[in-house]
Amino acid sequence: MLVAFNKPYGVLCQFTDRSTPPRRTLAEFGLPRDVYAAGRLDHDSEGLLLLTDDGALAHRLTDPRHKQPKTYWVQVEGDPGDAQLRQLRDGVVLNDGPTRPAKVRRIEAPALWPRDPPVRFRKSVPDAWLEMTITEGRNRQVRRMTAAVGLPTLRLVRVVIGAHRIGDLAPGQWRVCE
User: Fold this and answer.
1) Do 23 and 43 touch, CB atoms closer than 8 A?
2) Do 137 and 121 touch, CB atoms closer than 8 A?
3) 34 is catalytic
4) Active-site residue (options: 17, 42, 44, 53)
């Protein structure tokens, strides 16, 4: 079984949390029994998360050798210039080594659900949206890549993993994939 889930902001990609106070987890969304996240999305990221009860499928979806493309809509602080976009397209050197090249393009602000809490707005600092596709999945990779080129991430929403799209799922909703 493969489940597509729209992970809300502030939810952990696990079913339990031992923190004090406890944080929100996948347990509150009525997901099918015995599925677990195939990959992760940070607590402060939103969007498509795939869950499965099939270990081999989870491996194919997450192992970097399979190079599953993952597409994100990224709201960044600043006005991306050609040189910054070229750096992202060429790959960025991070503290854990160079990244693979990313596909990056500037997009209009997508029609998304409101985020709670909302992204901070500053009149004096411009922001922009990028569509960014990567084939790796390092810890906080997209955020670290945009920061490395001087464009801190304000909001990060994953919309595609391989052949799977978020579609019209609202935050907290899920569907079984065919």
Assistant:
1) yes
2) no
3) no
4) 42
Q: Computed over its alpha carbons, how large is the radius of gyration of the chain?
A: 16
SS3 28: helix
Give the 3-state secondary structure of residue 145. helix
Structure tokens at 34: 């015995």
Q: Is the pTM of this model over 0.85?
A: yes
**Greatest Cα pair distance in the chain:** 49
Q: For the chain, which residues make up each domain, given as ranges?
A: 1-64+163-178, 69-161
Tens digit of pLDDT for each residue in 12-71?
Answer: 999 999 988 889 999 999 999 999 999 899 999 999 999 999 999 988 888 877 778 999
Provide the CATH topology of domain 69-161: Alpha-Beta Plaits (3.30.70)
In CATH, what number does 1-64+163-178 get?
Answer: 3.30.70.580
Would 1-64+163-178 and 69-161 be classified into the same CATH topology? yes
User: What length does the chain have?
Assistant: 178
Residue 152: closest CA among 48, 79, 70:
79
HSE value, Cβ hemisphere, 13 Å, CA-based, for 130: 31
